[in-house]
Write a structure and sequence with these properties.
Number of strands: 14
Protein name: Transglutaminase
Number of domains: 2
Strand order of the largest sheet: 3-6-1-14-9
Helix content: 10-25%
InterPro entries: Bac_transglu_N (IPR013589), Papain-like_cys_pep_sf (IPR038765), Transglutaminase-like (IPR002931)
Number of helices: 5
Pfam family, one: Transglut_core
Length: about 270
């Protein structure tokens, strides 16, 4: 299957910006047998690309310097990705980061009383660890319905678990925190999802992956209740959202920003 992505991120500032720097992790991963980049381009208005490199997680990173005095920065990504049938199984661990690194909790994924209580609710009556992981995924979405407006980028897994609703980022963080507490390496994934009921979207997607002995990494999309398939494009991975965020940045000055995202993913 071939998927076409058109993704525009627009920052509008209420006053000219003297200096700003944006870090983009918006280039899909190229992994043999799973997904292959046929073409991909990043175009910038109001700034310029300074550097492209691969980070310690194997993510493609672009650094964008915003032109001094600009009131708007536009980042457009577009391209075509070819995906194979892989049904959520990524396979054996690769890259520079040792596997044990993904057992390490972060401030966003630290397991506290709520996460431990969630694990205890699962019980032990499972044929194998993968069955338990799927049961955990189902339990998380049962406890925390998908609702926007109750959490933000700084919400921890523990905080989200006690909220009135959460989004894919929160579901992934809770799952990661629980799986690490159970002794399984786990990581965060940001990417694109082709939805069956719409072409236009207002945000990228996020899910989690956990590592199992003799099989390797397996993906779990808690928000949608299944493992990723050919509709999913893996873009960046990391210990949590901060490692894999599509766009992060900093700026000088008191200007306030308005963010508008336009995204289309279609076959």
């Amino acid at each position: 299957m071939k998927l076409r992505v058109d993704h525009t991120t627009r920052y509008q500032y209420d006053a000219p910006v003297s200096y700003a720097l944006q870090q983009l992790k918006l280039t899909p991963k190229d992994r043999p047998g799973q997904q292959h980049i046929l073409d991909w381009a990043i175009e910038v208005e109001g700034g310029s690309q300074q550097l492209h490199y691969s980070d310690h997680h194997g993510n493609g990173v672009d650094l964008i310097a915003v032109h001094g005095g600009t009131s708007e920065l536009i980042v457009r990504c577009h391209g075509t990705i070819e995906l194979e049938t892989w049904d959520g199984v990524i396979g054996q661990h690769r890259g520079a980061m040792p596997l044990w690194t993904f057992l390490r909790p972060t401030p966003l994924t630290r397991a506290g009383r709520g996460i431990r209580s969630l694990i205890a609710t699962l019980g032990r009556d499972f044929g194998n660890e993968i069955e338990r992981a799927h049961a955990l995924s189902a339990l998380i979405i049962d406890k925390l319905a998908y609702r926007i407006g109750f959490t933000d980028a700084g919400t921890t897994a523990e905080q989200a678990l006690g909220a009135e609703g959460g989004v894919c980022q929160d579901h992934a963080h809770i799952f990661i925190a629980a799986m690490r507490h159970l002794g399984h390496p786990a990581r965060y994934v940001s990417g694109y999802l082709m939805m069956n009921d719409r072409t236009h979207q207002d945000a990228t997607h996020a899910w989690a992956e956990a590592h199992f002995e003799h099989i390797g990494w397996i993906g779990f999309d808690v928000s949608n209740g299944h493992s990723p398939d050919q509709r999913y494009i893996r873009v960046a991975t990391g210990l949590d959202y901060r490692d894999a965020a599509p766009v992060r940045g900093m700026r000088y000055g008191a200007a306030q920003e308005n963010l508008v995202v336009q995204l289309q993913v279609q076959q």
